[in-house]
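Sample A.
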Amino acid sequence: MKIIHVKENTLGEMIGLKAGDRLLKINGKRVIDEIDYRFRITDESITLDLEIDGKMDKVSIDKDYDDDLGVEFEEFKIRKCGNDCVFCFVDQNPEGMRSGMYFRDGDYRLSYLHGHYITMTNMAQNELNRIVEQKMSPLYISVHTTDVELRQKLLLYGKEDFLMDKIDFLTENGIQLHTQVVLIPGLNDGKYLIKTMKDMYSYYPKVNSISIVPVGLTKHRVGLPELSTVTPEYAEKLVDYAESLKAQFPGSEDQPFIFLSDEWYIVAKKPFRPIVEMGGLNLIENGVGQVQSFLEDFEAESESFPTSFSEPTSFTIATGHLAYGIFEKNVIPVLNNIENLHVNLVEIKNNFYGDMVTVAGLLSGQDIVKQLKGQEIGDAVWCSHRILNDEGTVTLDDMTLADLSSQLGVPVNVSHDSILEIFNRKIHG
């Protein structure tokens, strides 16, 4: 593994490591990625095989259990997903987006490190063995359906992927799993959904949860299978159905087994589950409990809001259709009750993907600019941090915040689900 940075006052600096050097082995075992490193560096007596200035070297160190080298490595090559799912969002992307939007991630290491959902279709036994050996738990698995024939129709993998055998192996060896179903009306719902839930629940509590999220469809589906979108009527029935299954598939006292993403409740215009039923919000990045968490944080933060501004101040919050109603009802009235503050709320229509895509995290820079230009937007514009990539640098259509700011003539900033963050950064941050 290539080292790209060595922190000061660390073991790595002490033994003379620098950017460009390579860590090859720890105690004779290959180190091929960050997970290998984390797993093997915990020994108290270690021998490092290194490549320094092109020459091989060995260094032995005695250290405490929790000491590491204090180095950062270049990112490992991510494994591509082996499927061609009929609902894959990557296939629905138009041209002109950042390069990462065209890559199908199917890497179990990112599932462990960052909670990414993977299907395991092309996962080999040696990879399953490694997961068990290095205790990569929990993992996040996209199941979609456990019916063998339907899986091949949905995933287009081309052959049996032995999903249940893999789940058997992982759970028997102590690996906890969170599972997910992307629900497509008329395809993997009905009898198929109940079979999937029954099959996953048979592993409970080792399979800790099953989350149901609605299929996301864009206007860019030329040449792709025709799929049905989620309507308000369908969402309402699904929420009621999921509630009726609580007794059949009970979870623990503080966490249910079945979760629905927030979008179902918003589209159905149904009240959310109490936050205490969200299982510690460990599925929040899958859209489970985001709204409730934000509203609870907002209520707590509001006690620290200023009661007034010394001079007239205004800014704009720009969001997608899905969150617009939440902000309009719960946030804007509180903010506009602050003396000398006026907050505009603007719903950005997703012309880039089509109006079936309503989440703020899939808004393009060009839609934000086009729909805010010419409006009274005040001193600054604030958007969700989810409009940017994981590094926080560009939108999905490859625009920076500086690009947006330049075109709109005011600072464009992102907030991490916190209104107080906006105030702390004095609006113009």
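Sample B, a different protein:
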Amino acid sequence: MIRSLRWKFIWIAMLSLLGTMTVLCVSIGVGNHWITTRRVDRAISLLHQNGGTFLPPGAAFDPSDFEFQVTPETAFETRYFIVELTEQREVKAVDLEHIAAFDRHSVTETISKVIQAGGSRGYVDYYRFGLFPSEDGGSTMIVLDCFLMLQAADNMLRITVIIFFVCALIVFLLLLFLSGRAIRPFAENLERQRQFVTDASHELKTPLSILSADLDLLSDSCGESRWLGSARTQIARLDKLIRNLVELARTEETIREGASEVFSLSDIALASAEAFAPLAEAEGNTLAAEVAAGVELRGVQDDLFRLFSILLDNAVKYCDAGGTIRLSVSQRGRTVRLSVSNPCAGLNPARLPRYFDRFYRADSSRSRTTGGYGIGLSTARAIVVRHRGRLTNHYANGIITFTALLPQVNEKRGNTSGSRGLIMPGYPAPF
């Protein structure tokens, strides 16, 4: 549990960081491109307003223009060409004085691309163009080389991405190193709680044993009475509650190295069904089992016996009169699926997620009648989680179903039980 909590903390923190930094990188990239485009459009507009020059003779540059600051050197630093077009979009005049990479043929190709692109402004490769109508019905096209500016924006984006991955790696390593310390108080507190439950349970068992012995002596000396019977019932309930609490604390621990083994889940399912069949019949119900052959699992056998016992006991207690309890065990790929279902009318589907909460009872009066404490299903979930699985419940058409999905082992042993679909007879098997 602690290990799972630690990794959940790490991944939540990493996903939050990655999400934030992704938004930052995208914002930087989009912002740089937008700023570059605005600067280029400003430069093209200045060229059109000033008749093909950035700064007319005798004019002073404006240092407050942050979109595109013009200095006496701007004309020598910026590469561009100007094309005068007729109304039919034919080349009338070309000014190639400020660019060396173009000749008349290259200009004709660029003009064709611009016409295909459409619009009055846009990009053609690394070139930004602006198309302005003329008084004679033609148009003036200004094409500016944006290679250096776009390259600078791309380089900024690459540097940002590199910094992003480096920071993500550093944060991941720091989380990996510090997360253990961060959750250590929680782990220690949880361990103290488990130890308290175990110690308290052992301390409570002693007076319960003494009380039980005293009741036997009273019964021998004074005879049996309904008060003694009531006291024995309450002692039995307390003893069961203590055992359930100890079991819950134990199942939430991680499986120790060497404690797990490969065993036949099919055999455990069949033995559990045979043990609970008489209890179902005593309540006027039927237990039907469909168990696939040779389903194996790696884990703790006692835990899986306990899991089947909890689910079947819950089904027997809360099954509608004359209903059929169904136990199913199957395998699909590397996943083992086991389910227990029973008819139970009148359940509130909104409360289903709370069935796995400790001490939760959907119907308190009914739970008192059946002897439930709201611990069994939380213990079942702890067992499934302990084996890296998932336990869910589902309610439809008056039938509640508990389904556990558990990871399957790789290796295969010989089948120890055949596939059986049966109505269990009314006799218990050794359990």
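Observation for Sample B: The two ends are 29 Å apart (CA to CA).
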